[in-house]
Every structure is written in structure tokens, then in C-alpha cells.
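To whoever picks this up:

The parser on our side crashed when reading a file containing two proteins. I've narrowed it down to the boundary between the first structure block and the second sequence. Both blocks are reproduced below exactly, byte for byte. First block:
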Amino acid sequence: MEIVHHHSNEWLQGVRPGNRALYLTLWLVMAGGLCSGFAQTYPIYVTPALAPPYSLRLSDYSMTGSQQLTVSIMVSDASISNLPVRLRIRIEGSAGVAVETAPNLTTMPLFLNGGQTTLLFGTDLADYFNVDNLIFTGYSKEQYLRTRQLPEGFYRFTVDVLHYGTNRVVSNHGMATAWIALGKPPVLKIPDHGAEVGQILGMPLTFSWLPSNVGVPAAGVHYTFELWELRIPGIDPNVIAASMPAFHTVQQPHTTLVVQPAELFLEQGLRYAWRVTAADPMGQVPFEQDGHSEVRTFTYQAHCDTATGFVVEQQSTRGTLRWEAGVNHTSFNVELRNPATGYSRQSQTFDSQVAYSDLDFGTTYRLRVQAVCNGDPQHVSAYSAWYTLSVPELKIDSTSCPDCHCGDSPPKASVTNLTLRTDLHPGDTISNAAGSTRFIIKTAEAQSDGVYKGQFWYWAEIWKVKILCAYWDLSVNTDNVVVNMDYESVSDSTLLIDVGAAKNYLDSLADMVTGKTAGANVEDTSAIAAPAADIYTGAEDTNTKDPVVAVAEIPDSTRAETPPQVIDEPAPDTAEEEEEEKVEETQEDTSNDTGPGVGDIPPAQTGSGTQPAEEEEQQEEDEDGDFEVQLFDGNKRSGRDSILLITAEAAMPDIRVKIAGNSHSTKKVELRLEISYQRDGEDNNGAAIKNLRNDVSVYPSSNDWQSVKINEEWDIDFGSDIRGGTALLLCRDDTKIDTVRFYIRGKNPTLNQIQNYLTQQSYHPQYWFIIKMTRQESSLQQFKAGTNYKKKGLTGTDNASGEPLYGKPRGFGLKQLDNWGNPIKHATSQHLWSWKANIDGGVEVIREKEEYVEEAKKDHKKVIDNWNKWNAKDPVSDNLTIIKGENAGSTALTITEGNETFAVNPSGNQRNIYDARWIKLFNGGPPYYQVNKKDAKSKPCREINRTNSLNKNYVRDVCSRSN
């Protein structure tokens, strides 16, 4: 071998470089013949080496800096100089796959010199791993391009050094082997995709997944748990995971993770996305999908189950509905309904039962319950089924109540239950032993154990009249039956009268009642200056369908008349006898008649005889201090249930309240105004959102009352608040409480007012699209136009005149303010009722989106600059590729949307392409304009996504509007 080696040197000496390859080849052939049967040695020795992570992607071996395959070429013959060579690489897999360098590969030659070692890796091998330069066997090129990886298995990499000009092998047969398999991403277990979690508020959340399957024994796999907030509806969580950093990340070797919601400030009702990524810290295991699991979502809000175990109990006029509460039930909404009259009452309870003490005899009620979970009024269950509560008919014993007015002793009847109640409280209904008369407790003060005093309403069944009486020494058994009681009537100005039961009696029996009771010493009633049928509250009597009225005493009217009584007189035998009776009654009552209108009850004379009746009447008024609540809008008197308007300048109506009464009175009345607005809504899937708005504002404040003297005014100061909805004016003094209900609605601004405000606040032309966008969002309406005012809460997507314009799921007003911000925000009451505040809120959103756009600008510029720096001959162009929407698949230098044209490098009247991204961000959905790379080696491209998730081009819609 030494001789052969020596001769080889002589053969190469003096040979022209162009012929050295031929002589070297001949030498190698002779050497092969001479050395037959002996270990071969080569002047060129090639050694391939594989280093983890082993990859099934061919491109990984030729990436910049990659050392997954290194090829070492050592030239031991010092006489070799500037020898041109290339490589032949063959990859063979145990699955019958073979990939080999094409023999006609065109690549730059490598020049070798004696005594040197050449090391090749990464981009040095780019031509040899280019798919177009490879021949596939047992696995087609198309299959590889579709999957971008070879099948898993045992692989042998062989490398030969070939003479560049003749393709003859001039080296040994270098070889390296490895078992190559991808690690499998984790498989997520719990919670399920789309689950609601957090059954109990603050309860820890558990996430778990199956361990990754890897092909390298004893590989130490670590897992990265990532959590994202999904604040913008409609965006694919996979897009969020691919483009946004996670707000919470944990790395651990375990496959179970417990998260404390309080530590992460998880928000009720908010959706979140999560995934787990597997990785080998030693870098020995490559993973499918870069180790990423699927992306799952969950909502941090427990499923709110309906209450169960309902039980109905009824006794006399008392009824109770009980149920079993769920673990996260914190309160309940209860609805009581009388189907016969349409009457409905809604209430809230924090107990798992509701009790009613003033139900009507002979009435069947229906009840249902809705649970509120975790203290969130918007997180409610479905209503339960209806449950029936029936109160039997009252069996009236005509002998048990001969007169039916205060002052008489309770009817005598046998009472066998002598176990007394010790828990009597306002609202309880008690009855006499016969069950024919009811007393509704107004106040209850214990005199001793089981003995009470206070006031109750005496319910006269035949007239359906409630008369206020004082009682004492009252004992009631556990059946709510009176055992003992003394009582008398109280002078009070308020009666509740059922028109159907009383109007005819009042009209036809007025003279008779007055005559028969002229000497009675009772103060129960007030003069009625208007026909009872003209004053009503809207409820109806079950049998007659007549309205129920509330009659209040008229100022300056007499109080000294007697109540009507039921007189057990025999019916006249003839018309003549009837007429004689009427004449007799009229003669008896002549001195008391003050001339009321037909059908009115004439007052009885109660003067002492030494003092004029007028003076006595005035004295009683002074002592009583009665008053009338008067409501004004500016100088204009407004009645109950009237509509007052917020002005087009976004100012509250000038609401003033006057307490009219006796000019000599020194008493004070306390006032408070509550303004509430409630409506339901609808989400993007058409599902109902209960109590979407349930706003309440109180003036002067929730803990204060405004004190006003008789004949003084309260000019209500709202400060900067603009509020609308249902207004309840509460008035109270020592003797009574009155409520005046009215409604506040809004008036839309004009275009000129809107433009002036935008200019005044420097919003326009700073945000050139703001008027266009406002037209698109609301047609420049803060409120639904027209005068079709509603007084009931709205549901679904309904709108009513004067109320804030609504668009699902939570949009209100000019800018249709929906969810925005981090942490998430909703429209406030001020945003709903002040169009100026609504515009301010819209500008807040616009500015927030502007920050996102500026961040995107920086990121995009960095990507483009990095590419252009290393690829100066192939820079990123200004062409915009349309990936979704109109003209998808095409490219353009500018994009025209409506009346506006956008460009990457705008000129003239063109807008910047980032303005289009900015506009679309206000509406939501994927970015309008984006700079993307398919992978690390791909050239960046400018992409346009013109439509949102509903296939609407919001940018074009906005830009089509006028200013």
C-alpha cells in the first residue's frame, strides 16, 4: 500500500488539474485490484453523523445552522489539490422507503485539498435535500409533499463522495443509522371542549391530559399548559392560540394541573381557550404538530340548574311553595300568576321557599321559580314548571257578619284550637271563626306572649272594601283564627274599592245608607268627588271583569260621613211602599245633605253645635296634614304614567316635584326618585339573554330621602347623570306612602349636533371614519325613533321609541357599544341614555383598537425587514393577496371599499391599509390586513381578509357611508 500510495503521488505530479480526476480514478481502480482481500484505505474518507432530534422532515436537515446531519470529509493524501467533488446521499427506511440524490443533480462543486477536513451541515446540504433533486422509491414525492414527512421507522443514511466530472466514487461508503419517530402530542381529557366549569364560585379547576407517546426510551417529556381569554366573539380559538401570547403559562412534568380561579381573576361568563404542548428538554424527540395538543375552550360559569323537589302548601288564604336548592343557587326569582285575571307578581327570595298571606278565596294561582346562580343576576336557570295553588271558595254565613263594619265585636263561633301564635307579623291574614271575615295585619306589636295590638285592614266581603282599624288584646291560634280581639275603626283617607262589587251599591243605596246610619259614631270613609268607575288601577275582578280602583280623599272635602252598611230590610211589597221608604229616608237626612252629585255618598253632620262645620273641617285638615304630590316637567304639569323626554342635547328633563296641601301645615314629606331600566336580549345564536339590562339609579341616593315642606318644590338634581326608564317617585310621611310612576325616554340628536360634538371633542377629522361608522352602526340613532312608547320591558331584538337602540348581543346606542376592553367592559347606564357618552365610549374602543393596529405595524415591519435583509434580490412586494371575500385568490396593489381606496403605501386620496384593519377591528372577526409566513423559510406575503364570520364586508359597508 505504501508503494501504491507512492506511485499515486507520481501520477498526480505535473498533471493538469483538468486531468487529475482521470488519473485519480485509474489509481483507485488499480488500488482496488492490488488490495483485493485486504482492508481498503481511501485518500478521501467521508463520515456522516446523525444528531438528535432526528427528523422525518427532509427540510430540517438543510435548515440554517441545523446539525441534525453532519458530513465530515477528510483528505489524507496531501498531494490532492483543488479536487472538484459532489456528494451522493441515500436514505433507506425499514418500511421500504428510499430517497436518493438524483444522478443529474446540478450543484456547485466542493474543492478538496490534501491534509484538510471539510465539515458540511445545514445550508451546505440544501441542494441535496431539495425535494426536486431527489428520487423517491416506495413512497412517492406527492405523498411526501402532502404530509411533509417520511414514515416512521429505522433509517440508514449513506453518503458517498463522487468526482464532480465523472460521478465516480472517490471515497469510502459512509453510513449513519437512527430510529426516527415523532413524539405524539398530549391528548386532552378534562374539561371537555365547550364545557361550563366552576360549579361553585371559587372552586379550583382541574385540567388533565394523557401523556405523550415518544419513541426515545427514558425521554424526559415536559408539558406547557397555556390559557387564553376569548373576549372577542366569533374568532377561532386556534387563531388566538397561534397569534396571541397566553395570559397564563405553566411548565411541569405531570399530566394534571389544578388552577385557582381567584389567583387568575377568572371572570364569570367569560370563555377561555387552553392547550398543552409536549417537549423534550434534551432535544432528542421531535413531536408531531410541534407537540401542540388540540385547542379546547371552556366557559367559567357553572351550569345553572333548575330547582327541584317542589311542594305546595295551602291553608285558608295563606299559601307556601317550597323547593330544594342546588349547590350554587344563591337566590330565586318567583312568579305568581292568576290566569283568570292576568294578574302577575314577581318577587325575589334568598330562601328556598316563598309564602303568601293575602290570597283571595275561590282563586287558583300558578307559581314558578327561577334560580340565580353564584350571585350573578344574569346567570339564571330556566323557569321551573308551573305549580298550582288553589284557595277554596269562602263559605259566607249571613248570620256571622250582620253589619260588616268596624266597631262591632267579632262574630261568635266555636274555637277549639287554643294554641296561640307568637310570630304574628305584617302581611298575615287572619279570619273569624266562621271564616267569613278577613283581617289583614298592617302592624303588629306584642303586648304579651301571644297577645298583640296594632292595625289591620278589615276586609268587608260584600263590598270588597278594606277599612283600616286599630286592634288590641288580639290572640290568634295556629289556624290563623281569632280567639279574642277588641278593635275600632281608624280615620283614614284611603279605600280600596272593587268597582264591580261596590259601584251599584254606592249609587243605589247612598240615601238609604245615610238615613239608616245618621247617628253612627264611626270615621271610616271619605267623600268621593268623582264617579268611582272613572278612577282605576287596571286590575280586574275575577267575576265581573270590572277594574279595581284606588280612591283617595280630595283636599277640602269632608271626612265626617258614615260608612255604607248592609241593612237586613225586607224587600218592599209594592212599588208604592218602595217609594214611601225613599221619601222617608230623604226627610230623615235633609239636614245632612250638602249637595253631592248623583251617586255620591252625602256626608253626615259631625259638628259639635258650638263650632261651625267649616272651621271644624279646617282644623281636622290642619291636624291631618294631608297632601297631594304634583309632578312637573319644567313649568308643565305632568300626570301619572306620563312620558318625559331627555333632550336632543343630552340633558335630563327639568323634573320638579311639589307637595301641595294645607298652607297652614308645618309637616314635611320625604321624597325619593328611583329610575330603573330592564330589558332582555338575544345572543348571536338567537338564545335569550335574561336581564340583559337591569339598571337602577336613586336620587338623592340609595340611603337618603329629600325632605320637602308642604307647598314647597324639589327640583331634582341629577348632576351629570343622564338616566331613563321607569321612574318611581316615592313619597312618605308619618301616616301614608304614595307612589307616582312615570317614564323617561330619549330624543335623538340631529346630524348637526353630532357633527358639532365630534368637532368640539376633536374626534373628527382625527378619526376620519367615525361618522361613516356611526351611520353604519345605528343610522345616527341613539334611541329608536318615533313616539310608539312602550311601558313593558323589551325582549329579544325588539326596540321601542325613545329607548336605547339595541343590537344583539349587547350593542346599544349610536356606536352600538358591545363587549370591549381588557378587563371586559359593557355599556353603562350613561352610555345608554346620553348620546354624547355613547360616542365617548365608541372613541374609547376606537383608540383601544388603534393600539392593536400599531403593534401589528411593528410586528409586520420586523418580519418584512428581516426577509428583505437576507433576500435583497427577492424583496416582499406591495401586492395584496385576497384570501377571503370578494375577488378571493387574486392580488392587487390597492383595495377599493365603498368610496375609499386603501394601499400599503398610500398616495393622494388613498387611505393606509392599516386604517381598514382598524375599522374592521371595531366590528370584530379576523384581521382585515395581515403579513403572514407559511413557515420559517417562506417568503412573507401581504394578505387581505375582507369579510367577517357572517361573510359581511364591514369595511366596505362603513366606507360606503357619507360624512
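<<boundary where parser fails>>
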Amino acid sequence: MRERELESLAARFELARRGEPGLVLIHGPAGIGKSTLLRRFLATLDDHAHVLATDAVESESVLPYGVLTRIAGLQPADPFEAGARLRDRLDELQAARPVVIAIDDAHWADSVSLTALAFAWRRLRPARVLTVLTSPDPYQPASLQPLLTREMSVRLALTGISARQVRALTHLPLTEQAAGRLCEHTGGNPRHILQVLEETDLDELADPQIPLPVPGAHARDALARLAWCSDAARSLVEAAAVLACDIAVVGVGGGVSWAAPEPAPGSGAAARLEGPLGAAATPFDDGPLSASARLFGEGPLSAAARLFGEGLLSAPAKLAGEVPLGAAAKLAGVRAPLSALEEALGAGLLMERPTGAGILIRFSYPLLKGAVYQHMGPTKRLRLHAAAATLAQDETTRLEHLLRAAERPDPPLVQEIAAAGRRRAAAGDWGQAARLLAQAARLDREPGPDAVEALLFDGRPSEAHALAARLGAHDPTTKTGTAFPTAPEPDMREMGAETVSEAGAREMGAGAGVADGRFARGVLAHYAGRTEEAVMALAEARALCARPALLARIDAWSCRPEPGDYLRLMRHSGGLGGSPPARLLTAAMSSLAGYRQGRWDDAAARGQVAAAIADELGPCWMSAHAHAVASLVPAARGDWRRAGQHADAARRLARDATAPVAVIGPAFAAAHLAAARNRPDEVITLLTPLLDLFTRPKPAPSSPDPTAYAQIAASSPDLTVHAQPVPLDAMAYAERGLLPWADLLLDALITEGDLRRADDVPAGSPGVRARLLAAGHETEMARVAFEAACVKTEEPFDRARALLAYGSFLRRLGRRAAAAEQLKEALRELERLEAVPYAQRCEIELAACGQQHAVSALGLTPQQDAVAQLVANGLTNRQIARELLLSVKTVEYHISQVYARLGVSSRVALANGVRARTGSEL
């Protein structure tokens, strides 16, 4: 967490180490993590710098030289003498090591200490000194602001953390949805998140119908501020809490201008509005309004209120999630909104934020909004939501207000919400569709299948799995604590003969909504590339379903046409292929299933179809994923050009995607290609960023059952996601459900010998875990793990690579005959798959064992042939020595013999000779 900010601080320290002093002000609201970031940065310095650190406190802000005494032991007669002595002290220290001065809560530092620090800092160039301060305000402490305008000075703003970082902060098994609720409720403030967690439990977090608590201190703070306000100001603040969005006060550009009631002739307001101000003046003009703001030390809104008096200032909302001040005032029943707004601003309940489009009003911090909302009481909340629904400009907002206004939502309202979600889905607006359909599915099972589909298409697999688990909760064949039911295989003959009415009777007899759960299971299995499981689940859903709408969706997902039929369905969207996203996922996941099952020709054909549909659908996470899947077979077969085209397309199509899973496909496609080309350093560079995005939280020691999730995962490693009561996060799908990038990264780190970083990567496939044990010199455990991996791994390509790794492991132990047996079996499978790059590696290992799978096309001995192939693959002499268990001198000898045999004199010429004589493309 905060890795980017730590990197920025490290970069500034590096500049200071080189003689370029720097000043960094870390700022952000209380609780955002400024002090924690500063401590983490100082901890990284170890013995690389002299650290002069202290924290300032409010009670000592008037104590002269309080800060300077603590950091340097100085207390002279005046600040300038202190500054001179501080400079001398810094010069003395920096002669040995760079110096880092750190002052936490610098806004409470005494002024004379800061004056001395500024005096010394101006005279430091060139010097190896970095000063780091923290403050909630980017413009405090004021005495250092002139220094912050210099080239080597920066302000580092800290904002709220993301939902993924919430899980890393709390170490709790939070769902993506629960973490998102915490972020929205607290603005991502880490301190506030931890305070809320102290007063709630995981069940409440997972249920969006249960409001999150407001910690007592913040509730008391809100009540104290409200007590300062008049009835009008209180009503306006309560209306803002119900609207739960920014209030747009002034719109600039696009024909939007100030609007105020016509003042009475001769009034003071009229006099003030006369002259150059005019009706179109804005707070950003260099005119009377901004001059007034500067004169009185007011913000633009304050100056506007003073100049316009009690006028109604209102403009159309420019951005989504904003409402005009006039609409908020109407909801609150306030006739003079600017006066009320001034009171709320003065009480610290609301704050103004000037933007290029005008002024936005929001709560000072999100927990204040929650406290106000909960304090007003249920009767007032219901009334205000009902009124807000009549003012809403868009359908989604209107329906959500109606839902909150209903004491108990009635079926017609739920159906209206579901219908609106389906309309948004038909228009391809999957974000809004998922929002509406998921809301409807919480109240009625019937929209559940559509909601699962919309959540998947919007790139939110965690929420889709959680909803699917709820849909299957009443399935009599579902085991407790599992998301998917396990049912007996249906009798297809009975299904074919059964009428719709009989199916309806069966559905009612088995429990209403069972078909919904089976359909969701089938869709999610398709999504994870488990085609056979998907077909079975959808067949069960069809046998249990009597609703025509659900039957049509089941048929859309059930069809399994040949590649030519996919192209026909792509051109005729009214066919059995369902919606374009459904057809895209079906094609992509069928290709992925074929790749894993070793049907590579079929997988390549379906991958091309998926890529064609993706190009038609346009930029989104699914299109990027389809091209990533289409790159797998070409890359593994050594078709670098085609694989590179798909990898580039995946990156291009994911550029504007907002779903977290959007980054997996492009990164995996490029890394898979780099791995096939034997470039582990590139793999690490491409995949390491994913660790920050998808990190599985570790259970805290105080968790009620910290081993439960590990036990479930161990008992069913390939269905970890589906075996948990609540899916942990997107990492589970990234490991084995979507694309196994963690396996690829871990394998590359092992190859590079970076075992320390390998500990941060989630456990990979059995073959990769065996390699990790071998790299850690756990010889006997590695042997057992390799044997288990070679027997239990069902996917042909993974098994072949496990055999290749096992053979290499045995060769390193000196057991060449046993190694050759494993390598030959691996080579047979790799040749069947036409995985040329991996087959070549297998042949190199066989040559290192003293065996030749075929006569060397280069006319070399087995050992020379192995060395030549590795040189052509770009490995250095030291890497070749490590790979073949030879000394560097021996490798150099073999290379000289190869040069003489081939008549070349350079590594480039050798690589070209290998390509020419073996027909391989490196």
C-alpha cells in the first residue's frame, strides 16, 4: 500500500544523495496515513542516511526552538543564528552520509524553528539533504511555502485507499463489494475504516441493505456542528446527505451562467450587481467577485453569497453525480439556500471545491454525511427520498430513491428496477445494468441470472460469484458453505420428452428459483473456461426452468457451435448466440478450455473467432481478455508474430477499461509470450504490478477461524473460488479461473533465483511449487512434489512442463538416466502439441544428459549443441553455466569449439547460424 508514494520519496532521496537537496510536503486529511507513510519511508533508509526526525504537537507550537532542539540540539539567541548553526551541522553530517530531516505534523511546529530551517535550507545547494514534512494542509506551514515553489520541492497529496488496498490494510477476508462499501462510507480514509470495522462485523459489511455504522466520535462531531446551524442550514445539509452526491453551485462555460432572481430596484443587492460584474461573471473572472474574495479572505462561494445576498444561485449539473444547488434547496424546502449554505460551510459540515466547471459542494469528510443521514431518523429519510425521486434527472437515480423511500419494496417496483437494468444491458451499459439488476436480485430471485451476467460483463467476478452463491442457497442439493450445487447427472431423454408445464411443476417441486442458481453456475463455469461443467449446469437449469425469458438465456449460453457457426452468429446477433458479450465469452472460454485440455488446433480456431468478435465489440475488458486467450497457442508454438499481434490488441482494447480484471489479460498475454521466448526478466517486469492489484489478504491472528479458508483451498485447489462461502477477491479467479499469471510470475522468479520475492506470490500449480522447493534446496520434498505433479496434473501442457522441470531437477542431482526418461516423455507431449520453443528446451536438457533426441542439425556434440541453443536464446555465459551445471570456463570452451565448427566469430552470428540450420525462429 502507498507503494507509488514510497517510490516517489525514494526517488527524491536518490537525488539528494547525489547532491540535489529536496523538500517534500506530504499532505492529506487526518487519518489518511501521512505519519505511517513517513515512518515506512524512514524505515527503508536503514544505515544509508543520517535521520533527524521528530513530531510537532499543538501544545508546544508556541515553545521557541522546540522542534529545532529535538532534531539538532540547537537553541541559540535568534532564528538566523540557529539557521547558520543548523547549516554547519548538516554540512558536517552529510560529509559521511546523506541527511534526512523529518517533521511529522509540521503545521504545529514553532515558527522560529521553521524560520531557522528555511534559512539553512536556502543555503544548502549543493548538499545531500532531504527534508520531509507532513501536514493536513498543502499550504501549511506557511513559513515554508516559498521553499515549496522551488524546482526540487514537491507536494505529495495522499488520497483515500482503494477497495483492494482495504483488504491489504485489514487482513480480513472481505469481499470486493464489502471493501467497496467501506471505501464509499469512509472515503478510503484508513483510520476511519479501522474505526468502522471496530463497530461492525463481516456479515453486516457483506449485506448492502444494512447501513454501516458511524463511529461515536464522528457522530458526536456531526451533532455538535449541526447544533450550530439554523433550521434552514440543517435542512440543506440533510438534503445533501439524502442526495449523496456533489452539489453544483456555479457552472462555467457551455452557456451556463450565474442565475439570480431580479433584485428589487434600489436595493443594496441591485447596486452591487450593477456595473462590470454583469450576469455572466463567475468567481474565476479577474473581476469584482474574485477581487472581493481576495479582499475579505473568502472562497469564491463565500464572496458570491455576500454579493448576491439571499439570491438563488443555481446552474445545471455538468457532471454525473451532481445536482444543482436549486434542486437541493427545493428538496430541503429552503428559500434562501446561499445563506444556509454559508452556515453549513462555517460549521465545517460542508466544504467547497472550485473546479473548471464551477464550484462543487460536498461533505467535509464522508463519515459526516453518514452521521447526518442516520441522525435525521427513518420518517424524514423516507420522505426526503420520495421527494428526491421526483427531482432525479436519470432513471437509475430515481429508482434507487424510490427503493429507499419504500418501507417494504413492492413487487411492481422490483420489476421496474429489473426492467430498467435489462434495458441498460441491451444498450451495453453494463455498469448501470449491474447496479440495477443486482439491487433487484437482492429483493427477488427472478432477476438474479441477469444480474450475474451483468456483473460478469462489467468485470466484477467477485460480486457475480457471491450473488450466484445466494441464488443457490435454497437448492436442496447444495452443500452448506458452497457456492455451487452438486447434482446427479440429468437424464437427457427425460428432458427431451418433458413439456414446459411439467418442467414448471418440477421447478416448483424442487423449490422456486433452483433453475436460477443452476443457470448462474453454468455462466460462471463458462467464464472460468470449464466447458463441460457449464454444459451440465445449463442442461440442469433448462430441465428445471419454465420461464420463457430464462429459457432463452439458457439456450443462448448452451449453444456450442463450430467456429464457422460462431462467425455466422457474430454477423446475425438475433441467432442463438445471445448478446455479443455472451458470444464473446463463450468463444474465448471455449478456446481457453481447449488450450488447457491439449486440443490446441481447436483452441487456436476458437481463439481467432473470439478475437474477431472482440474487434467487433470494441474496447472493454472482455475484448482484451479474448485477444489474450487467442495469443496462448501461437506463443506456445513459437508463432511470435501472431502472438504479438494478439498481445498488442489486448493492451489496446483494455486501455479505457475500468474493471480490475482488465489488466490481467494484456499483462498475461505479453508475459506468456516472453516466457515462451525464455525471457524471465521480462515476465517479472510485466507481472509484478499485478501483485499490488490482486493480493490475497492473510487472516489476522485474531480472526475466529484463520485456517478455514486455507483448508478449503487445500481440499479443492482447482475450485477454491467456488468452495468458499464468500469469494475473497479477484485473485482467486486470476490464479486458475481466468489466466494463471501468478504461476507464470512465480516460475520466472524461480528461474531468476529471486526466491525472496517469490514468497510474495500466491502458491502456483503443483509443478511450480515443486520447482520452488527444488530452488530452496529441499531436495527430498521437491522430488515427492515433482512426482505428485507429474501424476496428478491433468492439463497436458502443464504436465509436459512439470516433466521437463522434473527432468532438469534430476539431471542437476546427477541422475541422468532417470532425467532422460522424464524428458523424453515431456518431449513426446510437447511435439504432439507442436510447442516448438518448449520442445527445444527439452532437447537441450536431453543433450546435457548426454543424449540426442535426433541428430544435431548443427553437426555438434550433445553438450556443444545445448550450449549453442542457449547462446542463441540470448543467455549469458554465467546463465548457461548455471543452467547446465558447468563452470563458466567450460562454457567458454564449448562456445569457442562451436565457433570453430560453424565458422562464426560472434554470438550474433552463432544465433543466425542456429536459425538457419535448425529452421527455428528465436
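After patching the parser it read the second block fine. The two ends are 39 Å apart (CA to CA). DSSP finds 50 helices and nine strands in the chain.
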